[in-house]
Amino acid sequence: MTAVRGVELRGVGKSYGETVAVADVDLRIEDGEFLVLVGPSGCGKSTLLRLIAGLEPATTGSVLLDGHDLAEVPPEDRDMAMVFQDYALYPHMTVARNLGFGLKLRGMDRRERDRRVEEAARMLGLDDLLDRRPSDLSGGQRQRVALGRAAVRQPRAFLMDEPLSNLDASLRTSMRAELTRLHERLGVTTVYVTHDQVEAMTLGTRVAVLRDGLLQQLATPLALYERPANLFVAGFVGSPRMNLAAAKVADGTVRLGDWTLPLDGAYGRDLPEDVIVGIRPSDLHLVPDGGADGRPTISVSPAVVEELGSERQVVFPVAARPLDLDGDVAAPGADADARLLADDHRSYFVAALPARAPVTADRDLTLAVDVDWLYLFDASDGRSLRGASSTTLS
Amino acid sequence: MTARLGKGVSRLSLWLLAALTLVPLYFLIATSLRPGRDYAGDPGGLPGALTLSNFDRLLELSDFMRWLGNSLLLTGVSTIVVLVAATMAAHALTYFELPGSTVLTRAIASLMIVPPILLVVPLFVELARLDLIDSYLGAILIYSGLSLPFATYMLARFFSTMPRSVLEAARMDGAGPLRILPTVVVPLAKPALATLAVVTAFFVWNDLLIALVFLQSDEHRPLMAGLTTLASRETESVPVLISGVMLSVLPIVALYLAMQRFLVRGLYAGSSRGGGS
Which one of A55, A198, A339, B7 is CB 3.0 to 4.6 Å from A50, fit for a cystine? Predict the structure, then answer.
């Protein structure tokens, strides 16, 4: 029987005393896959990466590489390369020596080493910098050296811990493209940690969303966006974030403040009465002159119109109980009341309208709701009632 | 105008303070170059004629070159022993994060408060039993032992400030905990190691107590102890003695100058996003 290739986590957990950083994570990262671990800070994503690297020992569970348990294998023998958030270059070595250090430690002969270093330098545009020290490089150049140091080894897996977070926005965009190219070219299994959902959505073959050390959902970027498993994922993925508010279900409709919206066939009959309704800003449309094409409409009074150039975002109040911005709604009652954000007990929704849409803050407007993309979540536990992606884990 | 005057005054006082620190050096150089009679006439005055005869006389009268050789040997070997042992101990204390390593580091540091004079008698008894009195090995063991608490504590403090991610990067690159020491930790610790080398060499080179008690024969006597015995014999010729002191200072000044570039250079620059350029 051939061993399953790739990285596998079986019930992996990590605690520091009473604090649980990672709780019972099961995850299979296929050979050659680009998996992104995403979540807010403190969710355990970097700890999970360090557990895979072997830099931290797991409290429970096991990490497997190509079917072999790595529990007794120290980081230096795991054949994984890591790119650190702060690059962690060797300051006393030139760029060439930084790139070739791992190869030298593996006893590779000098000629082959030089060839690989030159190849990696060419690939990342570092040819002219080989004799420089890290202190003589810009942030972007250091970042490329850190990537090159990992790439030159051609390891079994790349582990990347927020490698782009210290770069400015434009450099980040170009480095994202560079990372995609690198992955396509080398085809090495990659685990990439980020808190930036744009990076997660653009880079990942699949994305694992973590929160408080728990895996919330593992799915392709599109599946995460279209079929979030729970309120947290729904609120975390997408920009502007999904509009969420408490609502009531009755007779195949959902009552959200003053509005009653029909539910489509995706929802069964056994829905709880108390739900959280979610509408993506992009699923609210300006009603054209010809009418709403049969879609239900809502009449809103804009509070603010935000001009982004490429689109106009209209912020408007909804007569419904507002929710925590983290999508952390869970049970209604005192706990939920404490999370009320607006003292007028109203939620604020955002509609993302096309550029130059004829809207102003002082004029009411009618919006059509794309009910095919209406999301319902159980108000008691935040679980999606729509039926999430098949790869959902929670 | 007032600001410029204030600046001028403060600069002048700094120059004066700096000049004051050079007075002993001037005295040392001037006296070693004065004929004995000239010095005897006016010890504090300006030199009349200059001569190198004091140095000739020193070499004639004493075993100076042997003492110098002994001092170089004792200082060199003790410094190397201290650097190697303290580096390994500090690496073990900081890298492995073993339970109790902080307490152990502090316990080691607390040994610094024990004055060497208190240890002389027990050390003498112990070394006599091991037949190491009046031997290079015995003296090197004592010098190393006395220097190690400070050396280990200082290096452990320095190592603990090293960027953890650089050490982890080396591990991911394939360097085990022992390989990391010579390839990453030591090169990054050059400023601390240079400082430690200078401090340890100063201590051993200038020591009198251990040398007088444990190295009693002319064959093993180091420079400072030798010059002290010369002082008791040559009470008349201060310039000859001073010329000996003058020569004894030179190797340690040379060591300081050689290490100075490491003392001032910040080697961490550029390892991470914040450093360098």
Answer: A55
Nearest to A135 among B183, B188, B275 (CB): B275
In this predicted structure, the answer to whether residue A338 has a pLDDT above a threshold of 50 is: no
Rounded to the nearest angstrom, the minimum Cα separation between A174 and chain B is 18
| Residue A69, H or E segment | strand A68-69
Nearest to B171 among A75, A86, A87 (CB): A75
Strand extents, DSSP E, B148-251? none
Q: CB atoms < 10 A from the CB of B219, how many?
A: 11
The shortest CB-CB distance from A136 to any of B170, B175, B277 is to B277
Q: Tell me if chain A has a CB within 8 Å of the CB of B269.
A: yes
Contacts of B166 in chain A (CB under 8 A): 88-91
Q: A382 CA to chain B: closest CA distance, Å?
A: 38
Beta strand pairing call for A34-38 and A206-211: parallel
Per-residue pLDDT, B234: 64
In contact, A351 and A316? CB cutoff 8 Å: yes
CB atoms within 10 A of CB A62: 14
Nearest CB neighbour to A84, from listed B165, B176, B269:
B165
B165 CB within 8 Å of a chain A CB: yes
* B272 to A89: CB separation less than 8 angstroms, yes or no: yes
Higher model confidence: residue B43 or residue B55?
B55
Give the ipTM.
Answer: 0.83
Nearest-angstrom CA–CA distance, A83 and A123: 17
A149-205 pLDDT tens trace: 998 988 999 999 999 888 888 888 888 988 998 899 889 999 999 999 889 999 999
If we measure between CA atoms, which residue out of B197, B194, B165, B170 comes closest to residue B183? B170
- How confident is the model over A12-38, as a mean pLDDT? 94
* CA B178/CA A88 separation, integer angstroms: 19
Residues of A in contact with B276 (CB under 8 A): 91, 133-137
Name the phi and psi angles at A274, rounded to 5: -90, 120
Confidence check: pLDDT of A393 > 60: no
For strands A311-318 and A304-307, give the pairing.
antiparallel
Lowest mean pLDDT segment, chosen from A6-10, A329-333, B229-233 = A329-333
